[in-house]
Design brief:
The structure is a single chain. With about 120 residues, this protein is mainly alpha-helical. The protein has one domain. The chain is built from five helices and no strands. The longest helix has 17 residues. The termini are far apart. The model has no long low-confidence stretch (mean pLDDT about 80). It binds heme C.
Length: about 120
């Protein structure tokens, strides 16, 4: 009887801990960015400043290549979702806790700039 109870509790507990569903989509930032976001001066530098992303994502390195000269072609249209900007891979990926990117997340401000840029049509401006 006691064993059965322990067994039952174990099962229930494991169901409980495995039932958590994580939502990796970043919350839409509360402070909206106003005005036109420029890809060249605001978005591209997010990836290359301090080699945050371009330490790996560079020519001859990990694709996509996010260095300033190649970033736009690498990101648009493949990694943006203009219909649902918040689901764009470029927006969600580095903000997730996936193993590869857990240590190079976008800051909330950077994510907001990227989201706003996609919302404005992901222009090469
Ligand atoms: C330490 C190396 C490294 C750094 C730094 C890095 N990445 Fe990556 N990235 C990878 C690897 C390896 C892959 C492919 C494997 C995977 O999907 O995890 C990848 C894949 C991706 C993908 C998926 C591309 C696709 O076609 O699905 C995106 C988007 C991405 N990275 C964005 C970023 C961004 C944005 C940054 C900077 C904030 C960044 N990465 C920094 C190594 C890195």
């Amino acid at each position: 009887m006691k064993r059965r109870l322990i067994f039952l509790i174990t099962i229930l507990f494991s169901l409980f801990i495995t039932s958590c569903k994580y939502d990796f989509i970043l919350p839409v930032p509360e402070v909206p960015i106003t005005g036109d976001v420029s890809f060249a001066t605001q978005v591209a530098p997010i990836f290359s400043t301090g080699s945050k992303c371009t330490s790996c994502h560079k020519p001859g390195g990990q694709s996509p290549d996010y260095t300033a000269a190649n970033a736009y072609a690498a990101i648009v249209p493949a990694l943006v979702n203009k219909t649902t900007p918040a689901q764009s891979v470029i927006y969600t990926f580095a903000g997730t806790t996936t193993a590869t990117h857990s240590w190079k997340k976008l800051s909330a401000g950077e994510a907001a700039i990227i989201l706003q840029w996609i919302t404005q049509g992901a222009k090469n401006n």
